[in-house]
Amino acid sequence: MTGRSRESDGDGEYEVDSEYYGDSEYDGDSEYEGDGEYDGDGEYEVDRESDGDGEYDVDSEYYGDSEYEVDRESDGDGEYEVDRESDGDSEYDVDSEYYGDSEYEVDRESDGDGEYEVDRESDGDGEYEGNSEYYGDNEYDGDSGYEAVEPGNIPFTLALDVAHNRPVPYHLPLVNGFVPGYEVVVVGQVQHGADRFHINLESSTQDVIFHFNPRFNDGVIVRNSKFNGAWGAEERGGGLQMRPGQEFRINIVAEHDGYRVYVNGAFFTLYRHRQGNSLVHQLLIDGNVSIRQLVYYSTLLGIGYPLRSDCNIALQHSLPPGSEITLVGTPQPHLDRFAVNLESAGGAEKALHFNPRFNDGVVVRNSFLNGGWGPEERDGGLPLRKGAKFTLNIRCDPDGYRITVNGRFFTLFRHRQSSHMVTSLTVKESVIINSVSYKSQIVSF
């Protein structure tokens, strides 16, 4: 048995606006097999103490299986209402990114008008396509107004997915910090008869950068920060969208002005930074709660920083079953074709070559292994358009790569090489890349 004390968060009054993310559903259909044609010999296919109000909430004692018995005193009575609407139930949107079961919508309307002129080498089908050359000043002229960065090797961000009833308290190191572009998703169940639980973003010195504290007896969610042992002003507005005994999902998104919080798919609050967001070192979860799943991930490239291909992105943890990559980009209007490759052997082999060919109206899928192309798969048509933004999701399943384009299932490309050998993602030809993200289920218990 362990003892743990809790104190109030202080009193603060804040109002919260809501956001609406609508609904949009997409239905996948059909799986495709190849047609047995060869590409030939071409190479390019491709974490409670006093919170600052002077009132002590008491000593809670922990009895075995994640249940707490608590005597506590009230921490204030600030009340505020918040208008919230559902995020809907969309799995995918054309302008959204999908990370496992979390729903995260991102609007990036920056298509640019840079010009590319292209010579191409053979893809193995007897037609020579080749190396692209970029002419111009490397400026990205779309709505974002940001200059494109040069292609090259880019470190890929690991997404950590921890699952299945983890006991609390639980500390999750945030190895890459929690700066804009990062998100944490907590899926769990509030215990029956629960009083409270909390989620903290903490520094390496145990400062609490962000304290998210649902209190069921009070009907509020308290937000606060603690620096040098002292709690700041509470934020208590917005009500309580969880009940004991029920499952919940909490998304905390790091942004430049604060942490944007969603509860069960609906926007709840923006908690503005009180100190720099670069201080976050770990996540702590404690209280009357059972954890079902934790996801820590990042988009590789943030909003407004498009990248001109060609690019090569190293995958630090290969691509095991359960992992997925989501790429948002825009093909240049003059484009005949482009390729997204999952590569191994230092780029010498391609486990998956995804090659939309606009003039032919097809997406060729293939592998380049042991020095040669395998049989092409060409079924399914062409679900992309020149100059139109697309969202490509590649999920590694035990039997193959499940490919979704703009929220719709496109095909299953069966493994021809172990996905554990995949070390990089490359994008070839004239595509403006708005974001690349990676999620991998690597720890289960």
Structure, described:
- With 445 residues, the chain is an all-beta fold.
- It is built from no helices and 36 strands.
- Strands 12, 14, 19, 20, 21, 23, 24, 26, 32, 33, 34 and 36 form a twelve-stranded mixed beta sheet that branches. Strands 11-25-35-27-28-29-30 form a seven-stranded mixed beta sheet, with no helix packed on it.
- The protein is elongated, with a radius of gyration of 24 Å.
- It holds the Pfam family Gal-bind_lectin.
Task: Give the biggest sheet.
Answer: 12 strands, mixed
CATH architecture of the largest domain: Sandwich
- Round the Cα radius of gyration to an integer and report it: 24 Å
Number of helices: 0
CATH class of the largest domain: Mainly Beta
The structural domain count equals 2
Distance between the termini: 23 Å
- The overall average pLDDT, rounded, is 68
Helix percent reads under 10%
Q: Briefly note the CATH topology name of the largest domain.
A: Jelly Rolls
- Any low-confidence stretches, pLDDT <50, length ≥5? 1-163, 301-305, 441-445
According to DSSP, the number of beta strands is: 36
Question: Which class of secondary structure composition applies to the elements?
Answer: mainly beta
Protein name: Galectin
Pfam families: Gal-bind_lectin
GO molecular function: carbohydrate binding
Organism: Timema californicum
